[in-house]
Structure formats: C-alpha cells, structure tokens
Specification:
The chain is an all-alpha fold. The protein contains 6 helices and no strands. The chain has helices at 9-16, 18-25, 37-55, 68-83, 92-110, 125-131. The N and C termini lie far apart (56 Å).
C-alpha cells in the first residue's frame, strides 16, 4: 500500500503550475511537459516523512484529516526538493518557502504554532513525579 502524503501531485500543480512541476520533476532529455510522477511521489513521501519527524513530538501522526496548512508545508518542502536536483538550483523564492516551512515545523515543536489534531499524551516520568510531589504547608495553612 502506498504511503499517504500530506500533499499530492495535483496539489503541487494547483499551487505552482504544471509547467514548473514538469520542468523540475523530469530530466532534461524528457519531452517538454512530461511529469515524472514516480519522482514527485517519492519527494512528497520524503516531505511527509520530514514533517512527521517534527509533528510526532506533539501530535499523533499521520495527522488525519489533513489540515490545509500541512498541505501547504508539504508542497513547499517538495517544491524545494524538486528544484534541487542534477543541474537545477532552487530560486530564492523556492528557498525562502522551504525555510519558512521548516521554521513553522520548529514552531510546532516549540508550541508556538498548533494544529487542530490529536495531541500526543505526555507519559513521561517527569509529569507523574511532578503530580505526586508532597505539598508543603506554611503556618497560616496555605500551600507553598
């Protein structure tokens, strides 16, 4: 069974146009306008895997249903990888999109950005030790 990704070839084409995706997905000897769907699928899977490596710190992955922000982030990462191969060099716009996508993923891990998704339950020993600490009382009866 094929891995489900946060974006599809159609999402990439909708955002960046068929000409750009065809131009960066195939090698230079392929007929103009040809899409290397196998390469695009592999790169979308790689982008999804990268995203999950960040998202899994806070959310159950894969995130389902897929929020629009994850589709956008996946497209930005895949666009960079498509443009970064053989003799291709990503433009500053494509590089900025990839950097913005990675910054957003780091913000998710840091808790500065959130998703409407199932959160990972904290089962660490630190949390349970904090909850079971003895409480200290002052002379006035208040908890310190």
């Amino acid at each position: 069974m094929a891995q489900q990704t946060y974006a599809t070839l159609d999402d990439l084409i909708e955002r960046y146009g068929r000409e750009e995706i065809a131009g960066t997905s195939t090698d230079r000897n392929a007929p103009r306008g040809t899409l290397d769907t196998a390469r695009v699928t592999r790169i979308l899977a790689d982008a999804t895997s990268t995203m999950d490596s960040y998202l899994q710190r806070r959310y159950v992955v894969p995130v389902r249903p897929v929020p629009a922000v994850l589709t956008r982030i996946c497209c930005q990462l895949a666009r960079f990888d498509l443009a970064n191969g053989s003799s291709n060099v990503p433009s500053e716009q494509i590089r900025a999109g990839q950097q913005a996508a990675m910054a957003w993923l780091r913000d998710v891990v840091a808790g500065k950005a959130t998703l409407d998704a199932v959160a990972v339950v904290d089962q660490s020993d630190d949390w349970s030790r904090y909850q079971s600490r003895p409480q200290f009382h002052s002379r006035g009866g208040s908890i310190l």
